[in-house]
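From the shared-data thread, chain only:
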Amino acid sequence: MTKRKDEGSEDEVFQIPIEDGDADEPEVQPEAEAEAEVEAELDEDVDEVTEADAPDDGDIVAEAEAVIDEAAEAIDELEKLRKDAQEWQDRYLRLHAEWDTYRRRTTEQRAEEKQRATEKLMENLLPVLDDFERTVSYATENGEAGLLDGVKAVQTKLVDALTKGGLQIIDPAGEPYDALEAQAVATVPDDEAFDETVKDVYQKGYKMGKKVLRAAMVTVTTGGPKRPKEEPEEEE
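Structure, as tokens:
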């Protein structure tokens, strides 16, 4: 290091000599080196990530086969459901046909039973018609003598034929008045009989089973004592 004193200046100036280097090589700046290193590291990281994430051919084939298997199972399940639906539809159609056949047969059987019942009733009434003819013939040839007895006999036979067919006669004389089987056409004061007792029957009624074909025409007593309530029978 040398000291030189410039003219016109009182202060001394120190000059640091610069070593001569290779003038052809450019000087590398620190920032450029850092950026280059960072870029190199980023490239290495990207390569590593790419290699790690790249799927293997075996994995792709396995996933494809799994998807194909699932699709095949779904198709089999769908086909099974279609077969079940077809079976249920066939069963419904078969039951519907059987029900129609049963209903038609039942209707035909009822019609046949009704016809047989009517035929049976007609057969029971044929002897009554014969008796009527014989009674009329007897009255024509011999006069009215004995006609009443013949008519009574025919009436008895007719009633027997109808009762065999299920007809029931409603003749409630002396019984408690029942509005379901009798129709009161008049009231009769009677202190001796219980109140609402059938006094006279003007016209008998008829019923089949529980169905009233015709209600009886009756008179009913009033003014008498109330009928005592019947006690329920004790079960043995």
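DSSP finds three helices and eight strands in the chain.
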